[in-house]
DNA sequence: CATAAAAGATACCGATTAGTATTCTTTACA
DNA sequence: TGTAAAGAATACTAATCGGTATCTTTTATG
């Protein structure tokens, strides 16, 4: 029961990378098994079809990754405006897996698959909602502690910030350099600053 | 020379709709010719391959549409904060062609094709840059007339707003109703308000 | 009207797609 | 250690893909 698990996981891991860089529909099963050295028999032993594998990528690879790297830190934040900015700065300019050229894995998959496949839509919605709610909780805590202005609406802000992130990742694809990201981050900083109480 | 032009145009028009609703790579030439009642011979008479057709869709359908509906109004705006909001409100809640489920045509195509095809990337970049610069010009005019705060950075704001739009269109795909759009627009209004001089 | 070019129709091609059927090998455990 | 089930390998299928070759029809112009 050890080898089998690692086979399954290597399929998911490699598929995640291929889907991220090439899109879901453009990633063929033949490509996956070729780049993982897994045979078709093994692939279809672990997944009854391609979509089941795609859903497993969301639930077993993308979700845990996002939870550990972003949801958890947000839930522990005492300085939301600053921590949100740091997170975005990290995602856009520092993270070495998320290449500018390829955008955001969750954003890409949402755009491609949510109109086509209801199950994908639900899985991605869960992922996204969790991140948004974590951000809302962080903002609420910031309100309670007095750092954040009491008149802001957490849900509005969370949605606004996450939308901006997905959008700028799309802009990023159009440029060779990081200039879009740098300009975006400046305005994000100004926007987030404005959420904080002046006396802070 | 009349029928031929209309054949070509009907290919482009139908392709645009199919690409918008199904994605570029998922739209096959066979599907296009089936839904347009154009034969393969006619298709390949007008376009030497699929990508040439795709580029024509961007340049001859999407670009003029965007220019007339958004660039031009922005260039004529004397009240940028208000006009940008109205434009977004129209795009998200009123326009009947842009269905929530399918996102933004330019955003979709950018996400799918810019990592894959340099020519697509350039054509889309031109489209996007033009819109962004129109917004910057409108904001600059607003600054000059005193409506807009002199300390804001037009490029930052334009990029921030357009990113938000692309992002929220992606969010929209995940929900059945318009709630995401409504929440987003509230925060956008507050953000845009903050760009205006207080005495106004 | 003749004719050449423009425009369109039809049949086909090799490659690739997701998925299946069948067989072989490894592993767990009595 | 024997055996059944888990896991993996191989060979195949029908459908679809973008594109081509070849042929027919329409249109513009002398």
From TrEMBL, chains A, B:
Gene3D superfamilies: Tetracycline Repressor, domain 2. Residues 28-47 bind DNA. Residues 5-65 form the HTH tetR-type domain. InterPro entries: DNA-bd_HTH_TetR-type_CS (IPR023772), Homeodomain-like_sf (IPR009057), HTH_TetR (IPR001647), Tet_transcr_reg_TetR-rel_C_sf (IPR036271), TetR_C (IPR011075). It holds the Pfam family TetR_C_13. It comes from the Bacteria. One of its GO terms (molecular function) is DNA binding. SUPFAM superfamilies: Homeodomain-like, Tetracyclin repressor-like, C-terminal domain. The keyword Iron-sulfur does not apply. Keywords: DNA-binding, Transcription, Transcription regulation. PANTHER family: HTH-TYPE TRANSCRIPTIONAL REGULATOR YJDC (PTHR47506:SF1), TRANSCRIPTIONAL REGULATORY PROTEIN (PTHR47506). This is TetR/AcrR family transcriptional regulator. It comes from Flavobacterium cupreum. The lineage of its organism: Bacteria, Pseudomonadati, Bacteroidota, Flavobacteriia, Flavobacteriales.
């Amino acid at each position: 029961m050890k080898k089998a698990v690692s086979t399954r996981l290597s399929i998911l891991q490699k598929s995640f990378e291929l889907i991220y860089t090439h899109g879901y529909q453009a990633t063929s099963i033949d490509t996956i098994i070729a780049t993982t050295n897994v045979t078709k028999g093994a692939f279809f032993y672990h997944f009854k079809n391609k979509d089941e594998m795609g859903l497993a990528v969301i639930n077993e690879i993308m979700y845990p990754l996002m939870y550990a790297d972003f949801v958890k830190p947000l839930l522990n934040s005492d300085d939301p405006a600053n921590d949100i900015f740091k997170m975005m700065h990290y995602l856009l300019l520092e993270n070495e897996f998320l290449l500018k050229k390829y955008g955001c894995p969750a954003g890409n998959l949402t755009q491609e698959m949510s109109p086509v496949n209801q199950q994908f839509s639900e899985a991605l919605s869960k992922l996204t909602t969790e991140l948004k709610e974590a951000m809302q909780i962080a903002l609420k805590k910031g309100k309670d502690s007095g750092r954040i202005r009491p008149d802001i609406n957490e849900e509005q802000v969370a949605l606004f910030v996450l939308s901006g992130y997905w959008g700028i990742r799309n802009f990023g694809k159009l440029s060779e350099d990081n200039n879009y990201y740098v300009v975006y981050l400046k305005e994000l900083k100004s926007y987030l600053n404005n959420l904080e109480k002046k006396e802070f």
